[in-house]
Amino acid sequence: MKEIKISFLIAAHNEEKIIAQPLENLLRLPYKNYEVLVGLDGCTDKTEEIIKRFSRKSKIIKYYKLNIRKGKPAVINTIIKKASGDIIIIHDADWIFQVKNKESLKKFISIFNDKKIGGISEADALEFEKNKIKSGNLGFRMVAYSSQLWYKYQKNTFTRKRGNLLYLEEPTMFLTNIFRRTLFKPNVSLGDDFERTKDIMDRGYKIAIPLDDAPRFIPVYDKVSISDLFRQKIRTAIAREQLKETRKMPLPKNYYLSSLFYIFKNSWKYGIKAGLMVSFWIALTTIATIISKIKSKFKKIGTREGWTMRAER
What we know:
By secondary structure, the protein is α/β, with parallel strands linked by helices. It contains eleven helices and eleven strands. The termini are far apart.
């Protein structure tokens, strides 16, 4: 049986320090039928030069010089038109697609043999990786513990189990970066991965979360500055408001308070240090949410402007 073709899509803006790591990893992927499409979004550093070198090295990697500087959603909306894969994997420039072996990857992609499944959502937080947590700074560990607990809250509250998979019962704030190309709908908000979840489910397809040792994304970084984290929390709060307006996607009643209470209560199970770090994270999240509401009263922040709040790698 012919392998399902996969298209990895990467939006890149001034990624010269990190872009080689995910590309080198993708070239070692134990799979034959795939492509990597990179959208160069107004790069002013050596990112384009590095991408060109990889493109000459392998025909698997293709790049498109867009110079639109409108952020990740606009880049993905453009380069997905060039994709020929049956399955799309949105791959951030500061991620690594971690695959244990050929068998685990094939098993992972075979989830799509079920025609009713439209996408796969993440099972664990990006930063929740043992070696990275050990080497990570305060900001990184704050994100790792809090995000992992947030994932657990979501899975406990909004999914049901069947076999080795969880199935989403409602989209809420689940992130979907792996999906059927035919189900793509152009993204308009800062919460593009949340949008995709709702768009796919609105069309009558299921979103699954694997429970076994499946491939997953891990970060290339192990440092997160508090200032970057704070900006990102403001951006996330803005994204939530955009989703309410553009996708009619309000959060369930009491979602914010109940999720934060769950995260706070369970953080202490990782130890006193983790509990204190998560408490700090909750305080930052709350302040960032308040600031985003104040900002929106004076000036509406759009997707293009919001993407300037990205972390610098």
